[in-house]
Write a structure and sequence with these properties.
nine-stranded mixed sheet; 9 strands
């Protein structure tokens, strides 16, 4: 607990230089990333994790279940969902359920919200972890015609959370954990119509969507002041997101990267530890991020406009 206390007291005032932020994210990850304590226990708490079938999401779901929570995981690949549910449930002996969800299709999001409500027996979630995300390897569009990283990483989560709220499936004092990536500093915009080609187009789309995650979280917290919203940079993790042939991290020595299990630790801290604050950005090596006025994430005009864009594309009034 002493190490966690030290981590939670860590406050950083990062600049906006890309090289500085990437260096901060990579330097000393293994020693600086906190290990989430096994307490407090979460008996009786209901949790939802998107993308909980693999990677960081799997270990977030496993960690919540180990602490006694009932867990619902949602993702696109049903076979992986079933396997993950069975594996976690067998290990922890706690309730683990799944609901298929394709964040790239708003129709699937609406259907999943109904199924999640039924499966959870209308008992609201105390913790929601918006973890699912993609780093496109080539340009693609969603079922509704939006750039795929924007659609999955931001719009789909916005739509899911809004539908669950409308159904009373988010507890009045729930904690919402939104995963981002500090690589967002490479972007200044996040739009549904971004077009790209070439080796680094998918990386730029991912960066833009991670900026969108921060804008979404900031605006969501304003509109729901009773909810705790924690944005998390989990670390630079050895996962499918960064393993592409032309990815910016593809040539890095794997010794610099966290395992998915370690990458889940800071999100678990964000999901489980009391007294974090109502609207914060938690970084696995830098602690509490106090962003400067020049940082694109704190552009209030852009974030308000972005929220309006999400609302206009959502389709749910």
């Amino acid at each position: 607990m002493a190490e966690l206390d030290e981590f939670l007291k860590r406050v950083s005032h990062p600049g906006v230089a890309v090289s500085e932020r990437l260096f901060t994210a990579m330097r000393g990850q293994a020693s600086k990333t906190p290990i989430c304590p096994e307490t407090p226990y979460l008996d009786g708490r209901r949790t939802l994790v998107t993308g909980g079938n693999a990677g960081i999401g799997y270990w977030i779901a496993q960690g919540l279940s180990m602490r006694g929570a009932s867990v619902m995981i949602s993702a696109r690949r049903e076979a992986q969902l079933r396997n993950a549910t069975e594996s976690i449930g067998k290990e922890t002996r706690n309730l683990v359920e799944y609901t298929p969800l394709d964040l790239a299709d708003l129709r699937s999001v609406s259907e999943a919200a109904v199924k999640i409500t039924r499966a959870a027996k209308e008992d609201p979630f105390d913790i929601v972890v918006l973890n699912a995300g993609i780093w496109p390897k080539k340009y693609a569009r969603s079922a509704q015609g939006h750039e795929i990283a924007f659609a999955v990483n931001v719009l789909g989560h916005h739509a899911l959370l809004k539908r669950l709220l409308a159904r009373g499936m988010i507890a009045t004092d729930a904690r919402i954990v939104v995963l981002t990536g500090d690589i967002y500093v490479m972007a200044r915009e996040c739009t549904p119509d971004f077009k790209y080609s070439g080796a680094y187009g998918g990386m730029l789309a991912y960066c833009r969507s991670k900026l969108g995650n921060l804008w979404f979280a900031a605006e969501f917290a304003k509109r729901h002041p009773l909810l705790e919203v924690v944005v998390v940079h989990p670390g630079v993790v050895a996962s499918g997101l960064v393993s592409g042939e032309h990815g910016i991290l593809s040539t890095l020595n794997r010794g610099f990267l966290l395992s998915p299990k370690m990458g889940a630790q800071t999100p678990l801290v964000a999901a489980t530890q009391p007294g974090l604050g109502r609207a914060i950005y938690l970084h696995n090596t830098a602690g509490h991020m106090k962003l400067s006025a020049e940082d694109p994430a704190v552009n209030a005009t852009a974030s308000a406009k972005f929220w309006s864009t999400l609302e206009s594309l959502d389709g749910l009034t």
